[in-house]
Structure formats: structure tokens, C-alpha cells
Amino acid sequence: MSQFWKPGTEKPRLIDDEEGGVLFLTASASSSSSGYGFASIEKQRQRLPVYKYRTAILYLVETHATTIVVGETGSGKTTQIPQYLKEAGWADGGRVIACTQPRRLAVQAVASRVAEEMGVKLGEEVGYTIRFEDATSTGTLIKFLTDGVLLREMMDDPLLTKYSVIMVDEAHERSISTDILLGLLKKIQRRRPELRLIISSATIEAKSMSAFFQTRRRRGLQDAEPALAMEPAILSVEGRGFNVQIHYVEDPVSDYIQAAVSTVLLIHDKEPFGDILVFLTGQEDIEAAVKLLTEEARDNRKSSSGLIVLPLYSGLSRAEQELIFSPTPRGKRKVVISTNIAETSLTLEGVVYVIDSGFSKQRFYNPVSDIENLVVAPISKASARQRAGRAGRVRPGKCYRLYTEEYFVNEMATEGIPEIQRSNLVSCVIQLKALGIDNILGFDWPASPSPESMIRALEVLYSLGVLDDDAKLTAPLGFQVAEIPLDPMISKMILSSNQLGCSEEVLTIAAVLSIQSIWVSSRGIQKELDEAELRFAAAEGDLVTFLNVYKGFLQSGKSSQWCHKNYINYHAMKKVVDIREQLRRIAQRLGVTLKSCDKDMQVVRKAVTTGFFANACRLEPFTHNGMYKTVRTSQEVYIHPSSVLFRVNPKWIVYHSIVSTDRQYMRNVATIEPSWLREVAPHFYRQDGPDPMLH
Ligand code: ADP
Ligand code: MG
């Protein structure tokens, strides 16, 4: 074993640096080979750009409360820095090193890579936690987790005492949880001077981050750790990306899926070997592109022989994920069709060609209509540059942008907007309240959310009975809702099922709503899928339909064949069973008695209304196109074609979520009685005439 400098021991001598302004130390990077058989992985580790900065990073972390590391994707930030910290002793004495990611899939992928590099079993020294899935043990030294899960951990341990270093990774993404986390970590730092933060990011907005973490030295802190610098240190890891040639289309394309597919075939035909990475927006268009390419392979063998086409989006099974990272066989060309998860969170080796649709799925919230949806929206220049960069990892590459140069130069926004400024804040507000942050507008945000969104969130939480007149969490309801790791509306639904005697049913609904879809993807099999859905369809809507599917699944003995026959996604159903079990435990801990209402769907719908009353909609009379209006803000909305109530159009419904394409479509709806609205939310609705109205 080589010697590593351990924090707290005598520091290595500082020498001048020849590498461009970055600190370098004499006890320079040497490696530990942790056993036999890892030599090639060790070599790979040493070849990563971040390796040269190993000692510098350890020195900065030792001497600074906050260290900001900027480095190109693939330079080794995520997989290496936690290992360096561990080797240097930051996980000694029962302490844990945490590394957060905005995305669940990235958490799993990097944790499994680091476990492999260290030659340990995933879940032991190296573990991960994502919502509803905990792969850690008491011996875990390096823990990867989503930023959302770390926020939840603060409810039990507000100062996050078990962590010695917290690395907030992918900070440039500015996910809503990352921003909340940064604000809270800044507070924690004042109470825990020994805690170290590393903020890592793929792009250079380090200055604003640095300004945010600038804290004036306080007397208490100074006494605790006199040598600790409170100014954040910034370290920039020089990458070694190769040149990437950019190609634009001459005229705007009307169908980016088709254009992407043609470009793949063109590259395959004309360009030397090297893998292709295609950026589309979500599961649907990715699967459409996979299908087009697979059909091409069937119909026209010549143009596509040797292509291995793989999708990459969240919700993929473990086996599917592994295919993405496995090396491309000789004589083949891998085509990975991905969401923007491959933009910076995951590195795929061997990519030489990138095709950029110019779009991604983004969350947008409108506080006036109070509707949040995921829409396919143009990316920013910063994103476009990141995407292009993915082509230059192994050798000079090419990026094909499916938009014009003129569009890129003149119309594309420079930077994206932080998610907190385009999200519904209900979950965010309740989490902060649960952590005792009462003045939410006055909270120290890296980017302030809009007051309108904040007020909307407060209104909803007040009407759910979660906040009182002083905007404090109510006891016990408010605290209980905060404790359930779900949207407050769903949590409220679960809690209210106790009195209504239908907790068994409502837990199933909540579990199904926690995953994307229980149906197999609908591309090309819409008719079969519709027929399958009809077998389970309930007149009360999609949420009750879920109960029929779940029952059928259990009766089949959780059979994959049964799922296959009914166009139901087997992996999704297994997840539902697993999530439901975890929710059941949480609910029971909170005093919910398990009880089934058997066939009485009225109480189930009532429980649903108790959570989702703010999403009530009424069918517009005198129109015949299925138009609804939200009671709350009079927005025009329609039932989504995938719903069992599509074209049925009952008069009163509540919805779970909205997706917007050509129209605003409600997904997962349930029928309700209008009189329930006033009954469950008297602060919200009044009823003078025949129909409930807003106060
Ligand atoms: P960064 O966080 O700076 O973007 P990473 O630490 O994620 O970089 O990746 C560093 C390198 O580790 C990658 O360039 C790649 O070579 C390798 N790597 C990372 N994840 C995997 C994986 N799942 N399978 C194989 N190699 C991987
Ligand atoms: Mg990374």
C-alpha cells in the first residue's frame, strides 16, 4: 500500500505549479492497488484528467470549507474524487463520504462503477440510495444518493452528522433539489465547521457558486478550525477533449426523430467506425427512433448491418443499463439514443458522433394557471456545447445539430433557467417547513423562486390542512404529510384513507402513481394496448383501473407471462409491489390502519379527492370536443388519449398530472362528486348554487 496523506496529519509541502495556476503538491499522486487483478482498472484510473489533481483536491478539501471543482464530463470527477477522499481517510472513524446526483439512474450507474473499480460488492463499502431503494449497509464508506434523498435525510439528522464530506455533483444542472440542498448546506456549514463541501460542475459558472458560498469568518468557527479558509476554493480540471467538428442542417427539420434516424444511417454509411450518441427527449421519442432503426435493419439489411441500437432513459432495468456501458464488439457500431442524461451525468466510452435534436424534456410551471408540465423545449447553448463535447472523448469527433446555425447563433438561449424558477413549489415548501425553515421567501437561495409560485404553494398546503394560519406545519397532519416521501397531495390521500377505511386500495394507487407507467410502451401497438386496457378499465377512471391491474397481477402469482399477455410492464409491476410495501410500512408507522373497502369505490374516490381537490375539473357544457376547465384557474384541459375515460368525458373529475403537447392533457384521472369538493376543502371551495366554486 502506498502512503496517502491523511487529513489532520502534517501537510505535504506546497511546490510551484507548472500546470496553469493550480496547486500542486510534492506528495504527488501515487496510487494504491487494492489487491490483485485490478491493474487495468488502476491504469484507467490514472489516465483520467482528474488524477493529476488528486493531491491538489485533497489539499483544498482539507484547508477549505467549500471546494468547487469544474471539469469536463468524463474527466473523473464523480467516480474518482470520492475514492481519493476515502483513500485519504475521510471515511475513517465511522464517517461517510456522500456524493449526490440529480438523477436516479446516474446514482446507480456511478455507484456500481465505483464498486467495480474498488473491487468491492455494491451495497457494502460503496453503496447508493435512491427513493424506495437503499443499497447501503453499516459498513458503507462512500454513498451515492440523489440530492432529493439527502434532503429527506436531513429530516432525521438536520446536520447530516454522519457525513464528513458532501460532494454536490452536477451542480450546473441546477435541479430544484440541488438548489434547496445548496441553501441548506450553507446553513449547516455554520454549525459544523468540520464538514467539507465539494461542489462539482461541468461548466464554468463557478464564480456565482463561489459568491454564494462566500461566508464571512465567524468567531465561533474560527475557534473551532483556525486554519480553515471560508472562501471557497475553485479548481479547474483541464480536460483533454478532442476537437469536435460541428455540422448544422441547412434548413430547419420538421421531424427530429426522422431526421435523427436518417443521420444515423448516413453516418453509418459514410463515416469510419465509432459509436453514435443521439440526444432526443424522452422514452416515447427514443423508442420511436429505436423502432425506426430496427425496422430499417429488417427491411434494408445493407444500410444498417452492424448497428447495435440501444435506448437510454430513466426507468431502464439493470440489464439494459449494463448493455449501454459494455464495450462495442469489433466490427459493430453502437448507437445509443438517450435523454439528456448522457449530456453530463454519464460518460459513454467510444462515442465519436453526436446527433443533437436541440430539444429536451423540461419542467415548466405557470403560477397563473397553476399547471406544471413536462414539455419538449429547446435546449440552451450551454447544453448544446455539452452535447457536442461528448463526441470528442476518444478521438476527434463530429456533432450533427438538427437545427440551423442561424438558429443556434441568434435564437438559442445562452443558459437554461434553474428548475426552481420553473417548478411547482409545493414539495419544496413542505420540506423546508419540516426542517424548521419558516421564512421561505427569506431563505438563502442560489436562485430565488418567484413569489407567485411560492404563494400558490402556500395556498395549496394551507387548503390541504398541512399548514396553519401562521404558515406553520400542523400537528399531526402537516408533519405526517412531510414524512411521506411523495407529493403532498398523494401523502394526504394516503392519510385520509385511514378514516375512510380504504388504505389498502389507496396505497396501491399511490405506488402506481410513483412510477412512470405500468403499461408497455404504446408505440405501434396502440390498438392492442387499448384493448388490453379495456379488460381492466373502470368507469371510475384510471386510478381505480390501477386497482384492477394490481389485483390481476397478484392473482396471476406475479407472472411475467400474464403481464406480457396484457401489455403490462412486468418490471414496473414488480416495482409497484416493492414501493407499495415500503409505503405500507411508512403509513403504519404513522398510525394508518390497514383496511380494504372491498368493492366500495366511492370511498376510494373520496380519498383521492381529499388529496387532489385542487386539480378538480368540470366538463364544459355546450362544447362537444371533451373540453374541461379547471375549477381553480379556468384553464382549458382535456382527458389524455391514454386514459380509460378518454371520450367518456364524465362531468366532474380530478387529475393527477398534466402533459402538454398540442393541448393540455390530464393523465390519470378519477371521477368525483362535485359536492365532495366543499366537503373536503371548505377553505378552498364554496357552494352557493349547483356547482362548487372557488372562494
Ligand atoms: P465526470 O464525473 O468527470 O463526468 P466520471 O467520473 O463519471 O467523470 O467518469 C470518468 C471515466 O470513468 C469515464 O470517462 C469512463 O471512462 C469511466 N466510467 C465511468 N462510468 C463508467 C461505467 N459505468 N462503465 C465504464 N466506464 C465508466
Ligand atoms: Mg460526473
UniProtKB/TrEMBL annotation:
Residues 260-436 form the Helicase C-terminal domain. Keywords: ATP-binding, Helicase, Hydrolase, Nucleotide-binding. Pfam families: AAA_22 (PF13401), HA2_C (PF21010), Helicase_C (PF00271), OB_NTP_bind (PF07717), WHD_HA2 (PF04408). Gene3D superfamilies: 1.20.120.1080, P-loop containing nucleotide triphosphate hydrolases. It comes from the Eukaryota. Residues 58-222 form the Helicase ATP-binding domain. GO terms for molecular function: ATP binding; ATP hydrolysis activity; RNA binding; RNA helicase activity. It catalyses: ATP + H2O = ADP + phosphate + H(+). Its EC number is 3.6.4.13. This is RNA helicase.
